[in-house]
Structure formats: C-alpha cells, structure tokens
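pinned: reference chain
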Amino acid sequence: MAVSLINFAAEAAGGINPADLSIVSLVSHADPVVKGVLILLVFFSIWCWTVMVEKFVGMSKANAAIGRLEDKLETGTLEDMINYTDDKKHPLALVIDAGNAEWREGLGEHAHEALHEVRDRIEHAMRLELSNEIRRLNKGLPFLATVGSAAPFIGLFGTVWGIMNTFTSIGANRDTSLATVAPGIAEALIATGIGLAAAIPAIMAYNKLSTDMGRYSGRLGTAVGLYSGRLAKRFAPGSKAG
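pinned: its structure tokens
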C-alpha cells in the first residue's frame, strides 16, 4: 500500500518511480536542460574517440615511416636518398622530396655557394614541409584538450541544475523523504559521471599523443639535419655530382 502511494505521488508529480532507478529511467525523466547536457557530452565523447582512433593509427604509421627513413639514411647511398620514395606512400616522403627539389633547382648556383649556404637552403625547404607534416598530425589534438578540460564542468553544470530543480520540487511538495529526493539527485549526478567519462580518456589520449608527437618531431628534425648535411657535402663546390 505504501509503495503504491509513493508510485502514485511520483507519477502525479511527473517524476521517477523510486522503485525504478535504472540509468535509462533516470535519463528519460531528467530535466530538459540536463538531457541537453547529456546529449552534448555523449556527442563530445563519440567525437573524441573518433579523433583518438584516427590519431593513434596516424602516429603508428608515422613512427613506421620515420623508422624506414632512418634505416635508409643509415644504410642507403645518397643516390638512393635522392630517388627516395616511401613504400607505404606516407606524407613523410614529401619532406625528402622538398630537399631534393631545392637541390635540383639550385644546381647552377652550387658552384658559387659556400657549403653552409647549400645546406641551409636544403634544410630550410625540408623544414617547411616538415611543419606541414606536424600540422597534419596535430589536427584534432586541441579538441581533445578542450574536452578534457571542459567536459567535467559541463557535466557539473548539469548536476547543479538537476539538484537545484530537485530542491525546488522538495520545497513545493514539502516532502523530504529519501524516496522522493534520491531519484532527482541520482539523475543529476549522471551528468557529472558522463562528463568525467568523456574527459578522462580525452586528456589521457592528449597527453600520450603530445608526448609521441614530440618524440616523432625530434626524430624527424634529426633526420632532416642529417640528410641536408650529407646532401650538401656530396654536392659541395668542386665535388662531382653523381
């Protein structure tokens, strides 16, 4: 009898049946503002996971490509490097192509340039293409950082709003029983939980990808310096271009 009265009171108030506190029930009876917050956070979470998968796959391919380039620098001849193309068609090959193109375009000037001038021109061209490669890999990372820092606060806003409505309802109905208060607070707290669920993977992925990007950029910068130096020495004034 008592349970029936509680259920009837909850239905009359348009609230949740206290006997049914499932996640689906709590979300379906949540305030429209709280529902909007939940939808936004779920959208952010899906988008973050899409970005994370894409970035981790991209970094895996980039690390494989820089490994192949380092092997070529260590074991290949300069003639091999001048004709270098990545077997996997990775954009990293464009960095080498930029250095080779700069050397070819300046063939008539090599005899009048000092060694460091030849190297600087080649390295500058390669680093311009390198910056394009880094920008390509960095695309999407700011979004992960934004979600990682903002999602908990967005979820907290939904929680505060939901709890505020719960206490307003308590004051209007003058009923402070746990059975009346718990459902409203529970549905409000879901927003904080979803916010944390979106933020934690995003910030962890951002930190991991940022670290990997730093290492990749360092390895690529070293490869650029090594290649431009070897190419400049090989085709320095007075040497025979082969």
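why pinned: The CA atoms of residues 150 and 201 lie 13 Å apart. The chain has eight helices and no strands.
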